Amino acid sequence: MKRIKEIVVVLFVFAFVLCDSVSTNGMGGSIIIDNAIDGKMYTIYKMLDLESFDGDNYSYTISSSEWDEFFDSGDGRFYFDVNSNGGVAFVGDEQSMDLVAQRALAYAKSHESITKKSQRAVGGIVEFKDLDLGYYLVDSSVGVLCGSC
Asked: What DSSP assignment string belongs to 43-104?
């Protein structure tokens, strides 16, 4: 499950140009994008809920039924295992993380019912506050994909 923690970092930094400073504040609750381009739109999509964690062990479930198709019969089935209790585990390798991010973002954009939050950058910063813990995809109107930072 330690691997899941690493994957969270990759999923936070999907598609924005200056990915040198994306952070969460400790236990979660906010996503802060520093060095954002003023006036550009940044959007987050919640993909997975964090159900529980203990040290390096994390338990995730799909955040909403709108994601079911992605995990059950879409591209997500190649990279994630969903057990009979709804628990989600990443089963891909490090080389596939960027591809997973691209495909998940494409899926989110093609399904308008998926909940998202958007903000314009002001003063080089974008902050999404009061977020539940989980996996979030980060996209921007800049249009450049960053898979790891």
From this structure: EEEEEEEEEEEETTEEEEEESSGGGHHHHHTSGGGGTEEE-TTSEEEE-S-GGGHHHHHHHH
Are 4 and 94 a contacting pair, CB within 8 Å?
no
Residue identified by tokens 């899926």 is 107
Q: Please write the tens of the pLDDT for every residue from 119-147.
A: 999 999 999 999 999 989 899 988 654 43
3-state SS class at 17 = coil
Q: What pLDDT is recorded for position 143?
A: 67
For residues 53 and 71, what is the distance between their CA atoms, to the nearest angstrom?
22
- Give the per-residue pLDDT at 94: 81
Alpha carbon of 71 to those of 76, 88, 118, 137, 144: distances in Å? 4, 9, 24, 15, 25
